[in-house]
Each structure stands twice: as structure tokens, then as C-alpha cells.
Amino acid sequence: MKTIHLQYFAILKEKRGEARETLQTEANTAAELYQDLKSRYHFPLSVDRLRVAINEEFSDMDTTLQENDEIVYIPPVAGG
Amino acid sequence: MFSLSDTSITCSPENLQNPAAGAYVSFEGWVRNHNEGKEVKSLEYEAYHALANKEGERILQEAKEKFDILESLCIHRIGHLQIGEVAVWVGVIAKHRDAAFLACRYIIDEVKIRVPIWKKENYTDGDSGWVRCEHCAGHVHG
Lengths: 80, 142
Hints:
Radius of gyration of chain B: 16 Å
CATH superfamily of chain B: Molybdopterin biosynthesis MoaE subunit
Shape of chain A: globular
CATH architecture of chain B: Alpha-Beta Complex
Structural class of chain A: alpha+beta
Oligomer: heterodimer
Largest sheet of chain A: 5 strands, mixed
Number of domains of chain B: 1
Largest interface: A-B, 22 and 32 residues
Strand order of the largest sheet of chain A: 2-1-5-3-4
Helix content of chain A: 10-25%
Order of helices and strands of chain B: EEEEHEEEHEE
CATH architecture of chain A: Roll
Number of strands of chain A: 5
Number of strands of chain B: 9
CATH superfamily of chain A: Beta-grasp domain
CATH class of chain B: Alpha Beta
CATH topology of chain A: Ubiquitin-like (UB roll)
Strand content of chain B: 35-45%
Structural class of chain B: alpha+beta
Strand content of chain A: 25-35%
Number of helices of chain A: 2
Distance between the termini of chain A: 40 Å
Shape of chain B: elongated
């Protein structure tokens, strides 16, 4: 089990009802963790619609999670 | 420099002054009153600050490498905005106008697709939605 810190934004924050949380997970990758969260919180976006940031940098969904990683799933952006 | 602002953007080239500059190009993105057939009343921008600032800075740096410009600035609003307010401002100075126009266009285009900023539109009919997120969510407006 790893400890992972999550921060949520935009539609994911609304669906989760929280801006951040820390949890224990057995997921190996960022993609696997998202699948768990998606079913737990009924997130509407499929994983292929998202990017992921790990420790404040864009990263790959297949990245292996490390203890105390800070993860942000990034819904489609709409600045400007 | 790229920055996020939770107060009105006062658009000014003051921070871009350079005696070698012969051209100044700026772009303002405004909050408009409609989008995809819906009447928009107001909107909210939310950002992942740490990464938005990093990615914004990277875009400005890229503009400097790709085009012969002297300086560039970009400010993006966050928070609640009314119709007509400036949502994003880009300013570029260069020795000559071609590079300034091209760099300004590059910066705004890249900011829109890369910087982690999200927009929630509040519609006049009381509905609301996160732009580019709700349709794929199976959410039906109205």
C-alpha cells in the first residue's frame, strides 16, 4: 500500500466534493488509481480525456506511483 | 512573465519597455455573452496554480526561442468574471512587427490548450457547465 496525496480541480473537485485528500492505494500506476477513483466517486470523465501531473509536473498515466506522490488529474483545459 | 490574477487585469505595456523595441502587439481575450448556442451570464476560471505558472512560463520561453522578440507577458484571470471583462492578456515587444504578431498568436494559442485552467460558464437559464468537460460527461444542458 502506498500513501498518495490528491488534489482535485474543476469538474473533478465538484464531483468529489473536496479539493484534496490523502489515501492509501494498491494501484500501481496513475491510470489504475484513476479507475478506482472514477468508480468510487462516479467521475464522469474517462481516463483518456485526462492528463496527469505528478509532483507538480505533467507525467504519463502509466507512471508507477511512488510513496507520497502528489497527483492531480487534469480535465480538458479551457483557458483563454 | 506568466501570472494568474484574481483581480481585474489592467492591460498595460509598461512592464515591456525596451529601447530596442520597434513593435508592440497585444491580445485581450474577453468574456462573451454566448457559447455554443447558450447565453452566458458570467463565468469562473479555476487554475492549478503551481503547474499553470510553470507551463505558462515555458510557453513564453518557447516564444522567445521561436521568434525574434525582446519580451513577452501573459496574465490570465481566475475567479468570477462578468461579460466584457478581460480574461487573458498577452503582450509582446520586438524589434519588428512580424515577430511580435507571430509570438503573440503562438502564446495565446498554446496557453489555451496547455495551461491547466478551467472555465465554468453560468448560463442565463440557471444551468452551468465546465467547458469541454460536460458533454463527454453525458451531461445534458437545460
